[in-house]
Amino acid sequence: xxxxxxxxxxxxxxxxxxxxxxxxxxxxxxxxxxxxxxxxxxxxxxxxxxxxxxxxxxxxxxxxxxxxxxxxxxxxxxxxxxxxxxxxxxxxxxxxxxxxxxxxxxxxxxxxxxxxxxxxxxxxxxxxxxxxxxxxxxxxxxxxxxxxxxxxxxxxxxxxxxxxxxxxxxxxxxxxxxxxxxxxxxxxxxxxxxxxxxxxxxxxxxxxxxxxxxxxxxxxxxxxxxxxxxxxxxxxxxxxxxxxxxxxxxxxxxxxxxxxxxxxxxxxxxxxxxxxxxxxxxxxxxxxxxxxxxxxxxxxxxxxxxxxxxxxxxxxxxxxxxxxxxxxxxxxxxxxxxxxxxxxxxxxxxxxxxxxxxxxxxxxxxxxxxxxxxxxxxxxxxxxxxxxxxxxxxxxxxxxxxxxxxxxxxxxxxxxxxxxxxxxxxxxxxxxxxxxxxxxx
Length: 441
Prior knowledge:
Arc Repressor Mutant, subunit A, 4-stranded antiparallel sheet
């Protein structure tokens, strides 16, 4: 039986990160391959999100359960990039002449793991994608300290990249070692200096809290070190120890004082002029971040390119198969790299979304951010009332986690810090069951 919010609030706050819904562990193989043209023909393609996934890293962090492998040979990377080119060709067969991308991101893995020559090959392929216009849209690219070079960043900015996001996690080497991410501090500072002088519009720094050796003092030190570079955005991620990750295999657990560290970090960033956008994202209030064309993540589609990249349409989410273990990931990458144009033109793995699941997704994608759930927008989109569709939302008011007005339902500070409780609480019984029955590989 599903836990009530009251029952969940008695447990620790960090119960699950609801960054996407349905979660990828709820995906399954379709009975038959579904032609992508059939999926996309009825979709509004005027405001799309492009996500390109590069599943390669120079090392596997101990906390990481992302779809990525380490130190692949040049032949593996070249075959993968050739497959990306083929998948983009397939996209040209289902995207219409009116297709337009209004947001984009290249993630992984570590996209900056690629050499400059490989990056050039990648962007030559992207230029073939219908509706791709990087010079007029916000476009993000992920980096790691060990793979940053001035030449790569200059090339990427020239290709229209407007945001660099770098995972630092901590500015103390003993803490990054505890996270399973050994790195040298001078290399980190050099990478940040290079990014700051690259001319990119937005710099984001990721930090993690929750190592058992981390204290309030060391956590504040890392945040203050990050602030020296005046990043436009900072993400504060709580540590999770997930199945098949390096930390899980060594028996490490996350510290139980994460909520205290979160509050310390939140308050410190606010004191330094940052606005809290979600539980994890803080944005500098005086930053001139380019808005770009309008994109609504709840309503508009996403085209995923690459193994591990998810695509979202109104009633169907799909991607390649998913794995965490090295063998499973390598098998999926090898399969992806061998797919024909016809195979790239069909969806074989994912989930169908009923209208009720679409409503849940809209609800979570809105509620867990600063603006909250617009009741008027929800009513306009679904022609029903959110508070009637989900009467359990009144529990947020009962436990003083949100405020309700005529037009919106918005989490307060107590609600924001319980985002990783509220998100899983809102999952449907069907999705929860599939997640619980998923066998990680």
